Structures are given as C-alpha cells and as structure tokens.
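Hi support team,

I've been running sequence recovery on a batch of backbones for a student project. Most finish fine, but this one hangs at about 90% for roughly twenty minutes before it completes. I'm not sure whether the input is malformed or the queue is just slow. I've pasted the structure tokens below so you can try to reproduce it. Let me know if you need the job ID as well.

Thanks,
M.K.
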C-alpha cells in the first residue's frame, strides 16, 4: 500500500467523554478515518504511524445530524470512526 494513503486514512483522534472512558478501561483508542477505509488499512496505518502493535480494530459509521435554524434545515456530513485496541503495556500519546 502507498505511504500517502496510510497517512491520509487517519484524519485525527476523536476526543469525547466516551472515547476517554474506553481508552482508560479497555486500552482502546478512537480515530476519525476516511469513509472508504477498511479494517486492515486502518490497522496498518496505526502500526506504521504510531509504531505500536494493534490487536483489534472495530469501525462504526456515524450518521450526520440534521440541524434546524431560521433559514431551514441543514445536514452535517456523515463520517467513520475506528476503535483501535492495543495489547496490554502499549499506549498512544496524542501530544
């Protein structure tokens, strides 16, 4: 796989209350990824970029919300989220 594709798959860490709780309890980190990324591509991208072994990857498609305002309705874009589990003793620093 091309290096550019690996670096573009991960769009960034997803920081939320649920993501922090899962990271603390299950050593599982959450990322925003490209909508067409596969589980094997996500696993390879995390292993190459952060240099940690990955034990499991789970993905979820997040539907965009519909927002209403004075001018009508708008729809936020849908996106894909990946939960990446690491073996015990390994960790990712987001600094």
């Amino acid at each position: 796989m091309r290096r550019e594709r690996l670096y573009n798959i991960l769009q960034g860490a997803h920081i939320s209350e649920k993501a922090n709780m899962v990271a603390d309890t299950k050593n599982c980190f959450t990322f925003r990824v490209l909508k067409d990324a596969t589980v094997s591509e996500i696993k390879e991208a995390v292993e190459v970029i952060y240099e940690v072994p990955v034990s499991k990857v789970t993905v979820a498609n997040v539907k965009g919300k519909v927002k209403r305002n004075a001018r009508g309705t708008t729809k936020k874009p849908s996106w894909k989220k990946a939960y990446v589990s690491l073996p015990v003793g390994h960790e990712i620093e987001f600094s």
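--
Follow-up from support: It reproduced on our side and the slowdown came from queue contention, not your input. The chain has three helices and six strands. No action needed from you.
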